[in-house]
Design a protein that fits this description.
By secondary structure, this protein is an alpha+beta fold. It has 2 domains: 73 residues, Orthogonal Bundle (434 Repressor (Amino-terminal Domain)); 108 residues, Jelly Rolls. It has 5 helices and 10 strands. A hairpin with a 5-residue loop joins β1 and β2.
C-alpha cells in the first residue's frame, strides 16, 4: 500500500513512499526487525526469481527496481521498503507475504505481537504488520496499518481483481480511489477495488490505525 510516496519496507526505489526528509530516530527494536527481515527477503527473492527462470536484469526490467538494488536484497544487504517489495511481488506474480515470510511448519500458529515483523516507509511515517501466517499460497492477507499524522501513503495498483476491505480503528483517514475521496473516521470501513493507484492520507491530529483485508482474484504465492 506514487508520487509523494511515504510508505514501504525499506528501499530506495518506491512504490509508495516519496523521498522523505531525514528519518527520525529509530528504536533498537525497529532496527533489529529490519536486520532480521533482510536475510528472509533475500532468500525468498532468490528462490522465487530462479523458480521463474528470471535473471536479475530481466526482473529489474519488469519490476522497475534497479538490478543493483535487487542484488543487494538477494544478498541480504538491504531490507527494501514496502514500496519496493510491492513492485517485486507484482513482477513475480506472488503475494506480498511470499517475500517476507520465513517458512514455518504446518498446523496452528500463534503470532506473538513482540515477534512481528514491522515493515515501514523510509521515513517511518507508515508501517504495515502482517497478522497472518504466510507459509503457503493464499488469496487473502490481513494487515495492521499505521500512518503518522499529516502523512500520505501512495499505492500503485495491485494485480487485477484485487480488493481491499479496510476499517479505521483510530484517527481520521482520507482514501483517494478511482477519482473519488472518501473520509473515514474511527469505526468506519471501506471496500474498494485496489487494482488501480490509490492513496491513504492521515487527515487527523493523531496517528491513524487501520486493519486491512486484501483479497486477490487468484491464489498466488
Amino acid at each position: 500500500m506514487t508520487k509523494k510516496k511515504t510508505a514501504a519496507v525499506r528501499d530506495d526505489n518506491a512504490k509508495r513512499p516519496p523521498d522523505p526528509a531525514a528519518p527520525p530516530a529509530v528504536s533498537s527494536a525497529a532496527s533489529n526487525e529490519s536486520t532480521d527481515l533482510a536475510p528472509v527477503v533475500g532468500t525468498n527473492l532468490r528462490r522465487l526469481r530462479t523458480r521463474r527462470g528470471l535473471s536479475l536484469e530481466r526482473l529489474a526490467q519488469i519490476s522497475g527496481v534497479s538490478r543493483a538494488m535487487l542484488g543487494q536484497i538477494e544478498l541480504g544487504q538491504s531490507a527494501p521498503t514496502i514500496n519496493v517489495l510491492w513492485k517485486i511481488a507484482r513482477a513475480l506474480e506472488v503475494t506480498f507475504s511470499a517475500l517476507i515470510s520465513a517458512r514455518t511448519q504446518s498446523g496452528a500458529l500463534v503470532l506473538r505481537s513482540n515477534e512481528s515483523k514491522i515493515l515501514t516507509s523510509k521515513d517511518r511515517s507508515f508501517s504495515s504488520r502482517a497478522l497472518f501466517p504466510f507459509d503457503e499460497p493464499r488469496r487473502v492477507e490481513f494487515y495492521e496499518l499505521r500512518l503518522a499524522t499529516g502523512s500520505t501513503e501512495d499505492a500503485d495498483g495491485h494485480p487485477p481483481g484485487t480488493s481491499e476491505n479496510l476499517v479505521v480503528t483510530a484517527g481520521t483517514i482520507e482514501i483517494d480511489v478511482a477519482g473519488d475521496t472518501h473520509r473515514l473516521e474511527a469505526g468506519d470501513s471501506i471496500l474498494f477495488e485496489a487494482d488501480t493507484p490509490h492513496a491513504y492520507r492521515n487527515a487527523g491530529k493523531v496517528e491513524a490505525v487501520m486493519y486491512l483485508v486484501m483479497t486477490y482474484a487468484e491464489e498466488i504465492g
